Amino acid sequence: MSPTVNERARSFLQVLRRVFALAAPYFRSEEKWRARLMLLGIVALNLFYVYVAVLGNQWYGRFYDALQNKDAVSFWREVRVFGWIAFFNIAVQVLKFYVTQLLQLRWRTWMTRDYLSRWMSDRTFYHLELARYANQNGHAPDNPDQRIQEDMQLFTDYTMTLSMGLLNAVVTLVSFVGILWGLSGNFSFSLGGSTYQIAGAMVWLAVVYCVVGTAITHFVGRPLIGINFRQQRFEADFRHHLVRVREYSEAIALDKGEKVEHAQLDLRFGSVLRNYLLLIKQQKNLVTFTSFFGQAAVIFPFLVAGPRFFGGAIQLGQLMQIGSAFDKVQGSLSWFVDNYDRVAIWRATTDRLTSFDDAMRAHAAQSMPLQREQNAELRTDDLAVSLPDGTSLLAGAALAVKSGESVLLQGPSGSGKSTLFRTFAGIWPFSKGRLQVPDNVAFMPQRPYVPDGKLRDALTYPNPATDFSDDQLRQALNDALLPDLAGRLDDSDAWSQKLSGGEQQRLAIARVLLRKPAWLFADEITSALDAQAESTLYRRLGAMVQAAGGSMVSIAHRAAVGEFHGQRWTLVPQADGAAGGARYRLEASAAPAAAT
What we know:
Helix content is 63%, strand content 13%. The chain is elongated. The strands form four sheets. Strands 9-12-13-7-14-15 form a six-stranded mixed beta sheet, sandwiched between helices. Strands 3, 4, 5, 6 and 8 form a five-stranded mixed beta sheet that branches. It has a two-stranded antiparallel sheet with strand order 1-2. The longest helix is centred in the middle third of the chain and has 53 residues, at 258-310. The N and C termini lie far apart (87 Å). The chain is α/β, with parallel strands linked by helices and 596 residues long. β4 (378-386) and β5 (392-397) form a beta hairpin. The model has no long low-confidence stretch (mean pLDDT 83). α6 (201-221) runs antiparallel to α9 and α15 crosses α17 (501-515).
């Protein structure tokens, strides 16, 4: 074998290993017996379908012989036989379709839930996005939403359809090659004064015909794999930006950013169109050849067997049987030709799911370099925090906050204040050292997540609304300065769109007042509020943590917030080459008092 052939063989085996790795878990899962029985039933139905096709081929011979012999009795008998063959053919196809679709549905359901569980566990969804933005291509799959929603459906559909189609082709080939061999007779020719005979000539002609067709099809259609892979990515990128425009519609409208967003959408749609044009051109070439190949196969067996019929060697029924058997053998051998475009889509889908699966497995195998432990207070030892690209923000930090103390964290924009909070929360993978954190803690981002649906569900997120009484919910809204919402607990709406930035921040504060954590980490949680509301809410939050015997650590740029904190940590820029190689160092001091 040439090196090129070896490379292609290795690539084919690698694809099969990937498909097996993706498919096997379901058939080993808690649903394995149901799945295996359904698969076995589909295989049995495919075998029976081929058996019915063999009966149909035999019927061709008898029916057309009856026509040629003008045998009315045999003709009507075969019409009745045809009715039974047609009935079984229809019944098998309908039952096979139903069981196949049911298995695909159950398989997709299991895979979707499995992938969702892994993606949403241990903050995998968050870390994979960080890796993507850091250009860590080995562990950064794009558009995981599309891979879970669309690629999984395509994978289960095409894997079942193509695998059962291939099984059908193999069984059909085995069943009809003997029939065609017996019907085709010997092919005689003279060469160099000697006469030679080839037994089963029609079989060999079908093999040669299909081998040549398969080779040409692979040459013409091979680029479709890469083009389909890119098409799925471009479509997902376009859809993702459309969703972002919808989510940030108000901000875009206020900034008059319609033209910019239109240009960005047009740019992404342009990528979709350009790649789709390449796909159309490549598919046109493939369709041109496969159409020619299929049409030629219709007349080919009659051109070869016709002289024997006209010479009286075979009857009309045998000629029709030869045509039918050749069609079955040629169709089986041409399975790759007929399904090449679908194989290309299936291969691209398999590659996308495999890379996503590999990324999640790699994340699960990673251990956080940060040692995180439970303690009665917040304490760090030799803490180092970096950006995803490796830039060091903080190194060798030793911090401590005891119960009853409160700390205000300040520093220049972009100095890593929020990143330090992410480290305290245990979600930042680019940190190392030792971290001790208390339990009963809540972290509040500057921009809270407000889900759509009933207001009571948005208020209690992520806890179920049934954990709290209506009186508790209304009291929390009143304490968070949202009395107008107290009577709308069962209203459903897109709250992230309907509520202002300040209202969303107050809703997040109401959540915390409901949960009553002992320790609170607050990141610019009143940045959209006026000074009076800020003062009122900070007093209530401070009283809450003091009553629970905890503490509060806040990020804020306003000096007035210092009134509610006893200490201040400031991230101070360091000169290049400073000890530890970090951009900032942390300095502790008394918190600034509020201006009078």
